Amino acid sequence: MSGSSLRAQFTLEDIRGSSPAITHLKEMAKRVAQTDFPVLLEGESGTGKELFAHAIHNLSPRAQGPFLTLNCAAIPEALMESELFGYEAGAFTGARKSGKPGKFELAHGGTVFLDEISCLPPPLQAKLLRFLQYGDIEKVGGISRTKVDVRVIAASNRPLEAMVAEGLFREDLFYRLNVVRLAIPPLRERAEDIPAIAAAIMEKLNRKYPHLKKQISPETMVMLQSYVWPGNVRELENVLQRLFALVEGETILPHHLAAFLPVGPWEVTADRPSLSQQLAMMERDMIQQALRSTGGNKARAARLLGMPRSSLYEKLKTYKLGY
Ligand SMILES: Nc1ncnc2c1ncn2[C@@H]1O[C@H](COP(=O)(O)OP(=O)(O)OP(=O)(O)O)[C@@H](O)[C@H]1O
Ligand SMILES: [Mg+2]
Questions:
Q1: Rounded to the nearest whole angstrom, what is the distance from the C-alpha of residue 45 to the centroid of ligand 1?
Q2: Which residues are in the Sigma-54 factor interaction domain (predicted)?
């Protein structure tokens, strides 16, 4: 195993956005990082659960210790126990002579991140509960228990409490894990974070491919904020990468974006102005800016905005701008 995979890569600075929800979550992350309590991260796919797990570890006194991840949904059930807890020499046919340490042992002094914890099979739920209660683990084929000093962070994109209600997840384990629960809202509920996150994504791409340098036009940004993003930040990243790779020219314009987003899920939520309202607000702003920079000269403002003077007069009336 390479050294780098034992380190948490992301820090609090990598979490962009300053919506009340994100600001609050970052505060909570800082606070819980000072303790060893388990943390349960809940949120739809792509909302940043893994990012928060890394950040909490890096904020904690364990930052210099290892950070190990096990994705419970990605690994066959038969292998999960030995991956997590290791096995003793000769534990089963084909086992390594020397035995093998599990993630908990390897993470001693650090953090184990259990991703998709809802997929942890019941026997392992019991073993994890035991660890959370007594701080020790038992290897596969083992005869004794070993104390390990490990902080557990778990993530789920399904609300664990609902799974408890359905009898699919142990209630006692849920309560142990649920000491601190951080619920990350979907991106559509914090559209105000989109410009900062999109800007960070573009910055990264521009740094990596300076010869392809691109920017997002203000109108495109408004559109990005109006889309519902079922795949959350991951989908936003994906769309911006595609636009970055395929758009000719330096500026990503609304018609480029329109060609890349699926037609379906545009939605106007109650707490956010509709797309046309947002476009109107932006238009009004741009007109005001143009007039300000031309000292109120409408002919020059119209030229600056690339619109006929007659249209500008129309807009001034529509937006009740008294120039
Ligand atoms: N607030 C944010 N600022 C910047 N980047 C973010 C933010 N939230 C998420 N990302 C980025 O979005 C992508 C998805 O985030 P992450 O992998 O943490 O999501 P997740 O909740 O673990 O998703 P899944 O449930 O699918 O595993 C990552 O590349 C991550 O860096
Ligand atoms: Mg994840």
A1: 8
A2: 15-245
Task: Give the number of the atom of ligand 1 that is nearest the alpha carbon of residue 71.
Answer: 27
Let me know how long the chain is.
Answer: 323
With a 6 Å cutoff on the Cβ, whether 108 touches ligand 1 is no
Which DSSP symbol is given to 306? T
Report the domain count for the chain. Answer: 3
Q: Which helix (H) or strand (E) holds 59?
A: helix 49-59
Q: For residue 278, what are the contacts with CB-CB under 8 A and spacing of at least 6?
A: 222, 225, 226
Q: Is the CB of 43 under 6 A from ligand 1?
A: yes
State the Cα–Cα distance between residues 11 and 48, nearest whole angstrom: 12
Domain assignment present for 226: yes
Q: Please indicate, yes or no, whether residues 36 and 86 belong to a single structural domain of this protein.
A: yes
Sign of CA dihedral 137, 49, 8, 26: negative
Rounded CA-CA distance 47/291 in Å is 40
Residue by residue, pLDDT tens for the chain (323 residues) are 333 468 889 999 999 999 999 999 999 999 999 999 999 999 999 999 999 999 999 999 999 999 999 999 999 988 999 999 998 887 677 767 778 899 999 999 999 999 999 999 999 999 999 999 999 999 888 888 999 999 999 999 999 999 999 999 999 999 999 999 999 999 999 999 999 999 999 999 999 999 999 999 999 999 999 888 999 999 999 999 999 999 999 999 988 888 877 654 455 444 555 666 667 767 877 888 888 888 889 999 999 888 889 889 988 887 777 76
Q: Is residue 13 domain-shared with residue 113, that is, in the same domain?
A: yes
Nearest-CA residue for ligand 1 atom 16 is 48
- 246: containing domain: 188-260
Judge if the beta carbon of residue 17 lies within 6 A of ligand 1. yes
Is the CB of residue 198 less than 8 Å from the CB of residue 236? yes
The tokens of 280 are what?
């109107």
DSSP-based three-state secondary structure for 5:
helix
Residues 230, 178 within the same domain = no
